[in-house]
Amino acid sequence: MAMYDGDGAGAGGQGFFVPPEEAPHQRTFMQWPVNRRVHPDPVFLERTQKTIAAIANTIAEFEPVTMLAAAADHARARRWLSESVALWDVPTDDLWCRDAGPIFVVDGAGALAVRHIQFNGWGRKQSHKRDARIAGAVADRLGLPLLPSGLFGEAGGVEQDGHGLLMAHESSWVIDNRNPGLTRAEVEARLLAAYGAERMIWSEGVRGMDITDYHIDSLARFTGPGRVLINLPDDPDPQDPFHHAALDTHDTLVAAGLEIDVIPEPEERRVDDVDFVASYANYYACNGGIITAEFGDDEADSLAVDALSRHYPDREIVTLNVDPLGEMGGGIHCATQQMPQG
């Protein structure tokens, strides 16, 4: 990992910021899952690969998509990817490009760089030898500066509105398996510098009960300056730590003066598993489109589409069955990473 230089920006890093996700993109990056230590069941791995291909093919109808994969994996990936999806020889382990992929920043002149928050397998919980190198490999291929942040972590653990505000769960950042010895204030200063933001809203989250330590992008998302869409259970279980934490995050955001729109979690799902992540908030905003999950609950699926249509009235809302990602604890946003126009 590049050395942190103390100002949070790294050499040449001043003036860079992460634009809002809904700002125009050059392309979307994704990762091809292959690691058999991570995915020992070949049948489930194939289902997952087909799901990743379906997401990539759908996004490619709106903007260019680049799939990262080792050259040896290109032939298999091409079986399911449309010809409009480019393949780059960047070796991967798993599919979570939001967490392992490059975080693109721009400056006032439109110059691009890659901000480096070092991925370490969600606190060394998963094999990640290849994924740990992806951000640097993409920066090298694009000829962009790689700007250190002084942090270990994942972009799925922090949300930005692109206008100076961040929100995150402490559980994903102020934790010894990512940033040992750093206080919350120190982590906050580095995140603000990394994203070019001015203010941060924290809530507690949940430690040690899922691989991400409760990434916020499966719960709440900025849809504009100071505006949040949050996915909450209609009938919270007081014994469920994630329900408790979700309500705490909601109350914290309300107290911070943000505009909050609540959508319900689905009650009827194709996958009946307590660990299944059924998040409508884990959508992806691409050029002209919103790509989101449907879970087989007609009423809840429809309410989610209605909410996304309110927040993104000029975009086409496309729903996909991405159940394999939910079975692994993630969703469409987790599998994508945008490259802004600059």
Helix and strand arrangement:
Blueprint: E1 25-31, H1 42-59, E2 65-69, H2 74-78, E3 85-89, H3 97-100, E4 103-106, E5 112-118, H4 121-124, H5 134-142, E6 146-152, E7 158-160, E8 165-169, H6 184-195, E9 199-203, E10 220-224, E11 227-232, H7 241-255, E12 259-264, E13 284-286, E14 289-293, H8 298-311, E15 316-320, H9 323-327, E16 337-340
Parallel strand pairs: 1-2, 2-3, 5-6, 8-9, 11-12, 14-15
Antiparallel strand pairs: 1-16, 4-5, 7-8, 10-11, 13-14
Walk me through the structure.
The protein is α/β, with parallel strands linked by helices. It is built from nine helices and 16 strands. It has helices spanning 42-59, 74-78, 97-100, 121-124, 134-142, 184-195, 241-255, 298-311, 323-327, and strands at residues 25-31, 65-69, 85-89, 103-106, 112-118, 146-152, 158-160, 165-169, 199-203, 220-224, 227-232, 259-264, 284-286, 289-293, 316-320, 337-340. A four-stranded mixed β-sheet has the order 3-2-1-16. Strands 4-5-6 form a three-stranded mixed β-sheet. A three-stranded mixed β-sheet has the order 7-8-9, with helices on both faces. The longest helix is centred in the first third of the chain and has 18 residues, at 42-59.
